[in-house]
Design goal:
The complex is a heterotetramer of chains A (104), B (644), C (468) and D (172). Chain A is an all-alpha fold and 104 residues long. Chain A has three helices and no strands. In chain A, helix 2 runs antiparallel to helix 3. Chain B has 644 residues and is mostly helical. In chain B, a hairpin with a 2-residue loop joins strand 5 and strand 6. Chain B is globular and about 85 Å long. With 172 residues, chain D is mostly helical. Chain D folds into two domains: 132 residues, Four Helix Bundle (Hemerythrin (Met), subunit A), CATH 1.20.120; 29 residues. Classes of the chains: A mainly alpha (104), B mainly alpha (644), C mainly alpha (468), D mainly alpha (172). Chains in contact: A-B, A-C, A-D, B-C, B-D, C-D.
């Protein structure tokens, strides 16, 4: 089991994190931005679980942390989607580029 | 609780009452109310002064500080707390007298001057606020209290200068005054922080005690730690002086003072002649032992800045045509005198002559300069203009003002036996014994002073015909306007006879003032020459002089030509003094010093525009900045901890 | 019993949430006035209960901590919320979803309370989200307004992103230490790259909430778009809560990483003050203007906190008190004007003093306080911050801070000039403000004028901060 | 020696990273959602691979059953799902890519430099333990966070309802 060193997990999760970041920065559509956020959150989950399992197995803090993150992600996604839908009503688009009336 | 606290409380109450209910319910009563409270404060000040100087002030032949009111206001740390209190010592008593007296005069004068003004009650509430803050500043027992009231003085003068807020120039002026002095206050604040950081106390008595005792660890620490090669103590003192220079309009922080003349004239008399502008001098005097004993270098800065400002302002005053601006520059020049008098002084005994002279001059100057402003107010009231060209020949219409103005001019020029002579004399003596260069600059400046003052005097009251169409119907003003002028005129004549050195000295021990007439000859001669010049140029209208010349015909002309008196005069005064020195100085003042401050404002706006790209309105760009910022911060941290 | 006493603040909020839910379910077309009345009474009760003393200690084995400064902060937040609720009456009357609005607001407040009291990273993260996600929904309560939706979108997306970064940091802290408990963490945390990385990312998450430059970019847009009461809540309550948490984290949990956070505070406070000022100068919209002014204020607070002593904490908490009153007063005026006349720009405030002297004077005093001009409390707040900052003996930072305070004067005076000195033919007519607004503004004014001069307030906070 | 579990780890990792990348680069939004789904499944299988069945189950139920479905619904509501997505300008893409790579570089380097002391002690991931801890009031219990999340979900639900329900125009 321990044939895979912890650092490989961390590299995978960091890579996933920055894939999400890339998506978050380049996607124009708000829903796809939201998807990128989900990817990032998942990468953090991997971190927590891997740390828990490989370094600190005596308690389940990391595991619980990721459980709670999943719950929060659900709430966040729900509110974000509600906001996006409302934005769609007022702007008739959900392109983030089209929602920049306020600036400077 | 000592009754002294009433000195402060009464004006404050008057401020609150006329501020809150004045406009609706009190109307004209507000003026009476404020005046009464100030009168009460003045009476208490006088009794305090009497008791302090003649009854219980001296301990073993020496005036010592008393603390009739002192309560702990809040605690920073167990050994550093802020007190609010009242400090009674020679200079604070003297200032109490000056402030309450001048304020009383201005209050009475304003009863007539501001009559019919729509915001009459507001005006009086602001005046009371100013008086309150100035008194609080004067009696402060610690440097923090000084700072609070210092700022309050700034605020109330901002309100008063901007009183005619429908005039854009008044608004701009008040804003400028506020911002420039705040800029200087920054120096003061930094100075306070440095001084209190090393002394571990905010109390004046502790600061002075700890910084003047050469064996104290506080002094050692403050001297040994340095920044840019200058010790922390010097930095602190110089920064405090910068704060003082801002309020006292020393070069180059004086730019606000001439503009501040946009306020009502009585306000100028109160703020820009007698009280607020000397706050800087007072502050240096307050900390004087520290300057004199532990840090002569900082004191030298005070002297140089003082004498330079004095000469600089006197030169510019010769070129101004706005009567109040002339007075403003002359104030700056006289405060320069006080400043360098402190700068050339030593601590204690005969060496402390400069200190005593400076305070003396502060005292006499307050009286005659307030008088000058009040007279100017009457003149402006009469002709409805600030410009010299709109005046002239007013001697007949304004006889009392004419006399009062003349007395004040003689006083400021240092002609014996008027008050200014005695104080200026002491200053010059002190300067002579300390630094010859300063002395000579000062003597010449004194001559210039009488020149520009009498130029003003003759231009107002003699030259030309009275401009009848601008003449107003109310004559010289009400008795409430005349009475203060008369009282102050008496003061200007007599104040010099007070044996000041017996009461106010650097170490509390009396000092015998001695007037050495031989020494005095030179300054008196120079001042008189200045007056003669002024008479020659400005007493008669220049055009009239030419008409006269044509009448006398060739005899006169050839006589004049032959002697070349006119040409020499022309050459010396107009070409050299005026064109070569005074004009460039005025230009420098207007364009470089003033322009610098405007440039800062413009540069900020340009910078602001160029950075606007940042706030693009795009949430992704925002997040990208967030990430980039995070990474930068992270690298910075790791690099700093040498973990990279 | 312990539980009820120690968590009384939180339990009271939960209680209000339950009452509101039940009332909403049983609602049969009550008027909005009725709702507002009931809720304000509940909030007043909540406020009173919050100011009652609480015992200090821990619950749930250290997951929940009650400490003096935190409890003071909670009471302060309750008061602020009450004031905001009072001045938003007019806006709420137009709102179709009063009960829901308050439900969200109180959940957010509950989140902040738990955040202040959190004893471990998990609680901290959860309560942070609890105080953010409903807030984003609140931003969207101007349901048909384009700007409101945009603001909500910007808030939720950027805060989601920042909390992702923060989570990453928390995961590193957890990985390095094996614990999420603050007490344990504070003992074993040390200067290794992993800890520093975790700490910096966590710091950024908090700095984002505090709108510290360069993590501030969302602030102005969200402030401008959100309805005024929400902006006030976001700017005052949320920020104040974050400051308390922030000082708790720095002093209590990451005390041993002092070197790194001093550096961070040093650099970021300078950048924050300058940027806030530079942007504030240009703003035309009052809400954006206050957004940048609040960014600058955060910079000063960072200077105070960097003083790294009980004095630093005291001065920043004291400043929060001042900031709360001043900003609520300012927002109260803005909300009244925006609600009654729809105007939000500085130029439309021209000549305000003519017809609405009370509003104009309130605004002027609030701005004076924000600018730090005596005798308002803001002056003392800033002096104490500088004093605390100077206790490190670093004069460069203090000089920059003081310089910025002077630059700031310029734009505060600009608004005051517009209100008092400029003429305007199209000036805002006489607005009749309701009693709740007047009460709220009066309380703020008293707060602004009294807090500064009353030594006991500062000393009381000082005694509280010693424990941190 | 490369045994099956090692190989499967790398396969899973490659799988989830590839689909993650595809999810953020796909040209059509519906496809993007499907790739996200795959990537999340990959993560779930990673949890399975670590013997964390409970977490894997939660991942599948909440993420795949809940969030992704929600996202797909909202796509149907707001978008013509077959049409191509608007694309970011090239400079932005390059900037984002550089920033991401740079960030990845820093964090990965720092992680790689850290010497982790790994243990072989197994985790106690019994359902019973998790359930017990979730509701325990003690120091290692999660009752309070659990309650907190429930309030958060309640608040989020209320917020969603208010915002997403059709409004009467003209009223805020």
């Amino acid at each position: 089991m321990n044939s895979i060193p912890l650092i490989h997990f961390l590299i995978v999760s960091t890579a996933l994190f920055f894939i999400g970041v890339y998506g978050f920065f380049t996607r124009i559509n708000m829903i796809t931005m939201l998807m990128s956020i989900e990817l990032i959150l998942n990468s953090v989950n991997i971190n927590f679980v891997a740390f828990n399992k490989y370094l600190h197995p005596e308690s389940n803090d990391g595991l619980f942390f990721s459980l709670f993150i999943i719950a929060i992600a659900a709430a966040e996604a729900a509110v974000a989607i509600a906001i996006i839908i409302n934005l769609y009503r007022t702007h008739s688009t959900i392109d983030v580029e089209d929602a920049n009336e306020m600036k400077l | 609780m000592s009754p002294l606290i009433l000195i402060l409380l009464l004006p404050f109450l008057s401020f609150v009452i006329s501020g809150l209910w004045g406009r609706k319910y009190l109307k004209n009563l507000a003026g009476i109310l404020s005046t009464t409270t100030v009168l009460a404060s003045f009476v208490i000040s006088v009794t305090t002064a009497y008791r302090y100087f003649f009854v219980d002030g001296k301990v073993a032949g020496k005036f010592v500080a008393q603390y009739p009111v002192d309560f702990k206001w809040l605690e920073f740390t167990p050994d550093l707390s802020i007190h609010l209190g009242i400090l009674i010592d020679p200079i604070s008593v003297m200032m109490l007298l000056v402030v309450t007296f001048i304020s009383l005069m201005v209050h009475i004068y304003s009863l007539g001057y501001m009559k019919g003004e729509e915001r009459y009650a507001t005006y009086y509430s602001f005046l009371s606020l100013f008086t309150f803050s100035m008194l609080g500043l004067v009696v402060a027992t610690n440097i923090f209290q000084t700072y609070i009231f210092w700022e309050l003085v700034g605020v109330s003068s901002f309100l008063l200068i901007g009183f005619y807020y429908s005039k854009p120039s008044a608004v701009a002026a008040s804003k400028k005054a506020f911002i420039v002095t705040r800029f200087a206050d920054l120096g003061f604040l930094a100075g306070i922080l440095i001084l209190s950081y090393y002394s571990g106390s905010l109390e004046f008595k502790d600061i002075i005690a700890r910084y003047t005792d050469s064996s104290s660890p506080h002094l050692q620490a403050a001297i040994s730690s340095s920044f840019l090669g200058v010790s922390a103590l010097s930095w602190g003192l110089v920064l405090v002086f910068i704060g003082g220079a801002g309020k006292s309009a020393m070069f180059p922080l004086h730019v606000w003072l001439p503009d501040a003349m946009e306020g009502p004239t009585p306000v100028s008399a109160l703020i820009h002649a007698a009280t607020m502008v000397v706050a800087g001098v007072y502050l240096v005097a307050r900390l004087f032992p520290v300057y004199a004993i532990s840090c002569p270098a900082a004191l030298h800065v005070v002297a140089v800045v003082g004498v330079f400002s004095s000469a600089f302002a006197a030169l510019i005053a010769c070129t101004q045509t706005d009567i109040k601006r002339v007075l403003a520059y002359s104030t700056m020049s006289q405060i320069g005198f006080m400043m360098f008098a402190l700068g050339v002084s030593g601590y204690g005994g005969e060496a402390g002559l400069g200190y005593m002279a400076s305070m003396f001059h502060l005292f006499t100057h307050a009286i005659f300069k307030a008088l000058l402003f009040l007279c100017a107010g009457t003149v402006i009231h009469f002709v409805h203009s600030n410009e010299i060209k709109d005046m002239g020949g007013l001697k007949k219409s304004l006889p009392i003002t004419h006399i009062a103005f003349l007395l004040a001019c003689l006083a400021i020029s240092g002609i014996p036996p008027f008050s200014g002579f005695f104080s200026k004399e002491e200053i010059l003596t002190a300067a002579y014994h300390h630094d010859k260069l300063i002395f000579w600059v000062a003597v010449v400046t004194a001559g210039l002073t009488s020149f520009y003052m009498f130029r003003l005097f003759f231009s107002i009251f003699y030259r030309g015909e009275e401009n009848t169409h601008a003449q107003s119907h109310h004559g010289e003003g009400t008795s409430s306007m005349l009475a203060p002028q008369i009282i102050l005129a008496f003061g200007s004549v007599l104040a010099g006879l007070i044996p000041f050195g017996k009461f106010v000295t650097s170490d509390g021990v009396g000092l015998e003032a001695h007037t050495d007439w031989n020494f005095s000859l030179l300054p008196i001669a120079l001042s008189s020459t200045g007056i003669l010049f002024a008479i020659y140029f400005f007493m008669k209208d220049n055009d009239k002089a030419e008409v006269l010349a044509s009448k006398f015909g060739s005899v006169y002309i050839s006589l004049k030509r032959k002697l070349y008196i006119d040409e020499i005069y022309e050459f010396v005064t107009k070409r050299i003094i005026f064109n070569l020195i005074a004009q460039p100085a005025a230009w420098f003042d207007k364009n470089i010093v003033d322009g610098f401050i405007n440039t800062i404002g413009k540069a900020t706006q340009v910078f602001s525009l160029t950075t606007s790209v940042w706030q693009s309105g795009k949430v992704q760009a925002y997040s990208a900045w967030l990430l980039a910022g995070t990474l930068v911060v992270l690298i910075m941290c790791l690099y700093y901890l040498q973990l990279l | 019993m312990d539980l009820i006493l120690m968590m009384k603040n939180e339990l009271m909020l939960v209680f209000i949430i339950v009452i509101l839910l039940v009332m909403k379910v049983a609602d049969n077309g009550r008027s909005s006035g009725y709702w507002i009345g009931v809720i304000n009474v509940l909030l007043i009760v909540n406020c009173i209960i919050d100011w009652l003393p609480v015992s200090e200690g821990e619950l749930f084995g250290g997951v929940y901590k009650s400490y003096a400064l935190g409890n003071f902060g909670k009471s302060l937040l309750s008061t602020g919320t009450l004031l905001i609720s009072l001045f938003s009456t007019d806006w709420l009357k137009r709102c179709q979803h009063i009960a829901e609005f308050y439900l969200l607001m109180i959940s957010t407040l509950l989140g902040m309370f738990f955040m202040i009291s959190s004893g471990n990273l998990l609680m901290f993260y959860l309560s942070l989200e609890l105080s953010t996600i409903p807030l984003a929904a609140m931003c969207n309560f101007g349901l048909t307004e384009r700007k409101s939706g945009e603001a909500a979108m910007k808030l939720i997306l950027s805060s989601a992103f920042s909390s992702c970064l923060m989570l990453m940091g928390i995961s590193f802290l957890y990985g390095a230490s094996g614990t999420i408990n603050f007490e344990v963490l504070s003992i074993i945390v040390q200067e290794t790259p992993l800890y520093i990385m975790g700490f910096v990312l966590l710091f950024v998450g908090v700095a984002f909430k505090l709108s510290v430059v360069p993590f501030h970019l969302w602030t102005a847009d969200v402030y401008e778009g959100a309805p005024v009461p929400v902006t006030a809540f976001l700017s005052v309550i949320s920020k104040s809560a974050m400051i308390i948490v922030f000082s708790f984290l720095l002093y209590h949990v990451f005390g041993s990483l002092y070197n790194s956070w001093y550096l961070l505070l040093y650099v970021l406070s300078i950048v924050t003050m300058i940027t806030g000022n530079v942007f504030a100068i240009r703003q035309e919209n009052m809400k954006r203007f206050l957004a940048f002014s609040s960014i600058t204020q955060m910079g000063y607070i960072l200077v105070g906190i960097s003083g790294s002593s009980a004095e630093g904490v005291t001065s920043s908490v004291y400043f929060i008190v001042v900031y709360l009153f001043s900003n609520i007063a300012a927002f109260g005026v803005i909300s009244q004007i925006a609600e009654k006349s729809g105007k939000e720009t500085i130029s439309s405030y021209k000549g305000l003093a003519k017809h609405n002297p009370f509003l104009a004077w309130t605004m002027a005093i609030a701005l004076f306080s924000l600018a730090g001009i005596p005798p308002t409390a803001g002056f003392f707040g800033k002096i104490f911050l500088l004093k605390a900052g100077a206790s490190k003996g670093d004069l460069f930072l203090i000089t920059i801070a003081a310089l910025n305070m002077i630059v700031a004067l310029y734009y505060y005076l600009r608004v005051i000039r517009a209100m008092f000195m400029d003429e305007n033919e199209d000036s805002i007519p006489v607005l009749h403000s309701g009693a709740p607004l007047k009460v709220a503004l009066a309380i703020c004014l008293i707060g602004i004028l009294i807090t500064g001069f009353s030594g006991p307030v500062y000393e009381y906070i000082f005694t509280l901060s010693n424990g941190i | 020696m490369m045994d099956a579990s090692v190989i499967s780890f790398y396969v899973i990792s490659a799988f989830l990273l590839t689909f993650g990348l595809m999810a953020v680069t796909a040209k059509k939004i519906f496809r993007s959602a499907i790739w996200l789904l795959f990537s999340l499944v990959g993560i779930a299988s990673l949890y399975f691979w670590m013997d964390l069945q409970f977490l894997a189950a939660v991942q599948i139920i909440v993420y795949i059953g809940g969030i992704v479905v929600l996202i797909i619904f909202s796509i149907f509501l707001t978008q013509d799902s077959g049409s191509a997505l608007p694309r970011a300008i090239k400079s932005r893409k390059i900037g984002a890519a550089l920033l991401s790579v740079f960030g990845f570089g820093i964090i990965a380097t720092l992680l790689a430099r850290t010497a982790f002391v790994e243990t072989t002690t197994p985790m106690d991931v019994e359902m019973k333990t998790i359930g017990f801890k979730m509701l325990s009031l003690g120091g290692d219990g999660y009752a309070l966070p659990f309650e907190l999340v429930s309030i958060l979900l309640l608040a989020a639900m209320i917020g969603c309802i208010v915002i997403a329900v059709k409004n009467i125009p003209g009223k805020p």
